[in-house]
Design a protein that fits this description.
Layout lengths: L5 H20 L9 E8 L5 E8 L7 H22 L6 E6 L2 H16 L9
Parallel strand pairs: 2-3
Antiparallel strand pairs: 1-2
Helix pairs in contact: 1-2
Length: 123
């Protein structure tokens, strides 16, 4: 997302809100059951939006969820256009949000590095 583009930031927040509500209320695809939208990045030209998501109760990527989201992309784009009253909604791409998993792994590595050494010393 263009970091200095306030319109892109505002649109990203609106897209996240509308997608979350639409997925919860209107999408009936069982593959998309426990999906949460964590972040949306809108391109500087406002024509593309990368949607980051998490699946509760499942670690790592689930190809069925990805396929369900890609299948629903047209419906979701249409819903965005109507809800936000914009002529052309951005093209949506979906990507699993791995930032939380990455953070947990880093925390574990730091904890492991800070554990006292049990080998004992001859001091």
């Amino acid at each position: 997302m263009a970091k200095d583009n306030p319109r892109a930031k505002r649109l990203a927040a609106q897209i996240q809100r509308v997608l979350t509500e639409t997925l919860r209320r209107d999408v009936k695809d069982a593959r998309i059951g426990n999906v949460t939208i964590t972040e949306v990045e809108v391109g500087g030209d406002l024509r593309t939006a990368k949607v980051y998501y998490l699946v509760f109760g499942h670690e790592g990527p689930d190809p069925r969820v990805q396929q369900g989201l890609e299948s629903a992309a047209g419906f979701l784009r249409n819903a965005l256009s109507r809800a936000l009253e914009i002529r052309q909604a951005p093209a949506l791409t979906f990507e699993l949000d791995e930032s939380i998993e990455r953070g947990v792994r880093l925390t574990r590595l730091i904890e492991r590095a800070n554990e006292p050494d049990d080998r004992g010393s001859d001091d």
